[in-house]
Structure formats: structure tokens, C-alpha cells
Design goal:
The chain is built from 6 helices and 10 strands. The chain has about 200 residues and is of the alpha/beta class.
């Protein structure tokens, strides 16, 4: 197992950078620059919003979106809430999206505007998702991500992370079947393990 000195958990990546060099640029995306201070603050808000929504440690939350700052807010926010982020391949068909969300038992689903239509087709098939949150807003039924997270405290929740906890759960498959394989990233290590069934622990 490879350990990164001074960064024992995924949550500590943004936390430590925000402390050591808060004004350094963490993300440069489409002309927008986000400092580590701002990314850490947004991650804290996401974490506290997740906790307020009833997401307990090691519960799964899923995201279906293209690359952008919101993904990193969710990734680090989930890590600070000790939740497990489930990124969904945006090239999947709606039934495959539903498979991943249901197999992971994701309790919240975050969706980018490009995929509102795909998720609308399978929203009624999601067995565990208690809410769908629109990352880009402007959806008549789903909560607006910016407003949802902005209401939360910007204080770091400081939840404990165990060595066996997971940070990310990912799915992959061949071209003839739904995603049968999942890979989990331990919250406290920079290594991966794979399992042919849904992993509930990274120990």
C-alpha cells in the first residue's frame, strides 16, 4: 500500500492544501479559477448538506455528469461526510444507469443538465435514491444543486475515517452486459481493490 505523507485520507487532500496554500489554484476550468480555499469551503458545504440529507457514513451517492468543478466538490464533500461517491459513465444507456444506481444502493443521485433526459426515463426505476439533485439547476422537479449546498454550513464536519472505509466505488463492464464489476478506492489509501460483487468494505 502506498501512503502519501501527511495526507492520510481523500478528504485531507483538499483540507491540507487549503491550510498550506489557500490561494493556490486548485481547478482551472473554462476560464474559471478556483482556489484551494474555495474548493475546501465548497466541499465542506456539500459534506454538511449530505449529512443534513440523512447520508450516513459509507452510504453511497451517485453522480452522472461531465467533468467540471462540481465533480470535485462532490468527491471531496462526500469524503468529508465519509460517504462513498459512485461516478457513472455518461456514455451508458438509461437502463445501465439505473443498474449502477440500484446496484450501488445510491441514496442520492446528482445529474448534469446533459443527462436530465436520460435520468427522467429511469427515475421511477431507482429503488434506493431518495432524491435527484440537478447540478445545473433549471429542472422543474429536482432540487437545484447550488441552492441545496449553499444553505449548508461551510465548517469542516471533521468526521472520523476508518482504514476500512471506501471513498469511491466505480463500475465497468463489457459491451454485452450491464456493469458486473466494481472497484473501490479506500478512503485512507491510494490503492484500489476490485470485486465481482458490490464491495461494502475496502478492508
Amino acid at each position: 500500500m502506498l501512503e502519501i505523507a501527511g495526507v492520510p485520507t481523500v478528504a485531507d487532500i483538499v483540507r491540507r492544501h487549503a491550510m498550506a496554500r489557500p490561494e493556490a489554484i486548485a481547478i482551472h476550468f473554462e476560464g474559471r479559477k478556483i482556489t484551494y480555499r474555495d474548493l475546501n469551503r465548497r466541499a465542506n458545504q456539500v459534506a454538511n448538506a449530505l449529512i443534513a440529507a440523512g447520508i450516513r457514513p459509507q452510504a453511497r451517492i451517485a453522480v452522472l455528469a461531465k467533468n467540471g468543478p462540481a465533480f470535485f466538490e462532490l468527491w471531496f464533500g462526500a469524503a468529508k461526510a465519509n460517504a462513498v461517491l459512485v461516478p457513472i459513465n455518461f456514455r451508458l444507456a438509461p437502463p445501465e444507469i439505473a443498474f449502477v444506481v440500484n446496484d450501488a444502493q445510491a441514496e442520492l443521485l446528482f445529474v448534469g443538465a446533459d443527462f436530465y433526459g436520460a435520468v427522467e426515463k429511469i427515475a421511477h426505476d431507482l429503488k434506493h435514491a431518495r432524491a435527484i439533485i440537478a447540478l445545473d439547476g433549471k429542472h422543474p422537479q429536482w432540487a437545484d444543486y447550488t441552492a441545496w449546498s449553499a444553505r449548508a454550513s461551510a465548517a469542516d464536519p471533521g468526521l472520523p475515517i476508518l482504514a476500512s472505509d471506501c471513498a469511491v466505488q466505480m463500475y465497468t463492464s463489457g459491451t454485452t452486459a450491464a456493469g458486473r464489476w466494481s472497484a473501490s478506492m479506500p478512503a485512507r489509501r491510494t490503492s484500489w481493490r476490485a470485486s465481482s460483487t458490490r464491495p461494502r468494505s475496502c478492508s
